[in-house]
Q: What sequence folds into this?
């Protein structure tokens, strides 16, 4: 207890020691769960004294100890571990230690700081009942569960959901809980939650049938809503979503609520927006359906003014959606100015969660400002200094060919190609999904300028950081007509300080291997290798080139060695070249790998005929002999290993 009270780190390590040393093991039943009883009683006494450390230990100990199955690992014979899966059954010892653990939780439940944690435990306990653990244990603990539920009673959805789960799973085990608990599952808020929740698992329906039924029920509910219902509806939904425990259900709940809203007529939609602004701070529906309807049915300048004057958490998203849904016929110079004012504001400074925002919204403003793309995007790009996330959600669709064509993007930014270049390289550094297949890169490179220089800088920057290079973009480069120019530039412009670095070999091995399997790509790769070898056959760079060639497949390696020897017969240079990989994958015995290298080296003999290649041949032969010796040693080691197994 004293050790755990020192720091948060010692609390964690101390509890782990406690559980590992005195938790459930295969001997616990034999000794009447003595350890569990003693530890539980000690912690309970400290919890009663309101010791903060004891409360933390007590919660985690009770959470662990009140499980129905446990795993324990012991060292067995022959340095092997034995894993035990233990399902407990009722006994006097179990009743004693578990009752103490329940008392710990009852004390904690009265402390506001521990209420949420205890409720989460109860929800987990209720879920475990679905596996139908020992009936006697569960029925014996009904009184403790009920006591906790009445202490924790509230109108939060997470609480009501736990009650429902407990009643349903308990009934399946023929375990009955207090009837008053069932009475809690009522009221408008609970009914709304049940309408919106995704309960497919317990529906016993096919997924399509369930979705159809759920959609029909929600739509019917939405059609019955009248104006006077809306403020209360929004407040109920907001209260549901204020419970952070809804967690992974949030998306489906918001989706269902959005479907309700889509059923509203003009008057209801106006009232909904007013109520949402006033009461909907926790609701995350897409504003598009609301604002599309309102932009069509009312004065858009008035609509914009009402959103701008309001103060609510989703304001920035709703303003963007306003411009996105603005009808083309309502686009006037004033609206273009309003859009730019919106983009220049820093109201998005703290946004860290949002769907993508398509820049297609700018298309409708081209009629009033032909350069709207460079102007708006320059403003957005500046935001990277205070919120990179917001920049990514605006530009995240700009380089996807399902949204824009490469030529279209080039045309839209023709007045500021430098800005386009900065945005493009910023985005491909941030995400491998941007311009995934390199279609935009090829279009930009074909326009000339310093695009290849900028791409080369990104290429080597990624290689230096051990970032995996984009295989699809590499494939696009290999398929292009100017592939030799592109890869020549990249190869010859690696950072000078890395001239002898493994980074070059790593990067070009990746470029030559991690690409699509394509006849054209293979042909272009072979042509480029032949070309780069011939151009550097008498240069120090030839060693670097063979450092990555040696990692390629045998056909590439053999042909590259052939090209080199045809253009340079110097043994001094040949002796520096790597002919085989520096390593072998260890998938068991190394003998097959060694033999494979022998076969490859012996296939090089026809390339080194005659007197002028005597030294070359001797070098190959010495490598073959060394590999044969390695095979012999490996055979001996395998025999020894088998004897001692």
A:
């Amino acid at each position: 207890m004293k050790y755990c009270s020192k720091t948060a780190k010692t609390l964690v390590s101390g509890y782990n020691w406690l559980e590992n040393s005195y938790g459930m093991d295969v001997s616990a039943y034999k000794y009447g769960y003595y350890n569990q009883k003693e530890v539980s009683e000690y912690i309970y006494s400290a919890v009663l004294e309101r010791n903060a450390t004891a409360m933390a230990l007590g919660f985690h100990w009770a959470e662990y100890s009140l499980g129905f199955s446990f795993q324990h690992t012991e060292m067995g014979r022959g340095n092997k571990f034995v894993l035990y899966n233990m399902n407990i059954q009722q006994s006097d010892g179990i009743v004693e230690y578990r009752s103490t653990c329940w008392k710990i939780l009852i004390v904690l439940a009265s402390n506001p700081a521990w209420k949420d944690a205890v409720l989460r435990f109860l929800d987990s306990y209720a879920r475990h009942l679905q596996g139908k653990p020992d009936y006697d244990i569960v029925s014996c603990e009904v009184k403790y569960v009920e006591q906790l539920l009445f202490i924790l009673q509230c109108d939060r959805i997470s609480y009501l959901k736990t009650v429902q789960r407990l009643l349903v799973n308990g009934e399946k085990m023929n375990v009955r809980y207090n009837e008053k608990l069932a009475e809690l599952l009522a009221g408008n808020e609970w009914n709304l939650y049940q309408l919106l929740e995704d309960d497919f698992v317990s529906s016993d329906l096919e997924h399509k049938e369930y979705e159809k039924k759920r959609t029909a029920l929600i739509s019917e509910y939405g059609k019955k809503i009248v104006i006077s219902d809306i403020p209360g509806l929004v407040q109920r939904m907001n209260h549901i979503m204020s419970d952070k425990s809804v967690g992974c259900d949030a998306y489906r709940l918001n989706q269902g609520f959005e479907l309700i809203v889509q059923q509203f007529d003009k008057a209801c939609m106006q009232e909904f927006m007013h109520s949402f602004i006033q009461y909907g701070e926790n609701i995350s529906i897409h504003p598009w359906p609301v604002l599309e309807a309102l932009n069509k049915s009312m004065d858009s300048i008035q609509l914009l003014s009402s959103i701008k004057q309001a103060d609510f958490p989703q304001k920035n998203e709703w303003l963007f959606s306003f411009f996105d849904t603005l009808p083309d016929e309502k686009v006037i110079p004033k609206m273009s100015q309003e859009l730019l004012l919106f983009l220049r504001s820093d109201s998005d400074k703290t946004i860290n969660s949002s769907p993508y925002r398509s820049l297609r919204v700018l298309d409708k403003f081209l009629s009033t400002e032909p350069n709207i793309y460079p102007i708006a995007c320059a403003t957005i790009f500046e935001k990277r200094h205070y919120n990179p996330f917001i920049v990514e959600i605006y530009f995240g669709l700009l380089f996807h060919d399902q949204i824009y064509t490469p030529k279209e993007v080039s045309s839209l930014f023709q007045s500021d190609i430098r800005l386009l270049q900065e945005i493009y390289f910023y985005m491909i550094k941030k995400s491998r999904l941007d311009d995934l297949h390199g279609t935009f890169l090829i279009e930009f490179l074909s326009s000339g300028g310093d695009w290849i220089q900028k791409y080369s800088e990104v290429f080597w920057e990624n290689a230096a950081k051990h970032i995996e290079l984009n295989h699809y973009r590499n494939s696009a480069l290999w398929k292009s007509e100017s592939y030799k120019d592109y890869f020549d530039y990249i190869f010859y412009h690696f950072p000078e300080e890395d001239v002898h670095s493994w980074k070059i070999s790593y990067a070009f091995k990746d470029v030559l291997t991690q690409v699509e399997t394509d006849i054209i790509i293979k042909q272009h790769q072979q042509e480029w290798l032949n070309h780069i070898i011939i151009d550097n056959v008498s240069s120090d760079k030839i060693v670097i080139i063979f450092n990555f060639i040696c990692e390629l497949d045998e056909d590439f390696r053999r042909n590259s060695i052939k090209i080199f020897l045809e253009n340079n017969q110097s043994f001094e240079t040949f002796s520096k070249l790597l002919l085989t990989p520096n390593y072998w994958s260890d998938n068991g015995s190394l003998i097959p790998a060694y033999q494979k290298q022998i076969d490859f080296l012996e296939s090089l003999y026809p390339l080194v005929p005659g007197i002028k290649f005597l030294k070359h041949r001797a070098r190959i032969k010495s490598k073959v002999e060394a590999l044969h010796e390695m095979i012999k040693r490996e055979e001996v080691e395998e025999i020894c290993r088998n004897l001692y197994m």
Observations:
- The beta strands are 69-75, 81-87.
- The CA atoms of residues 20 and 241 lie 39 Å apart.
- The mean pLDDT is 93.
- DSSP finds 33 helices and two strands in the chain.
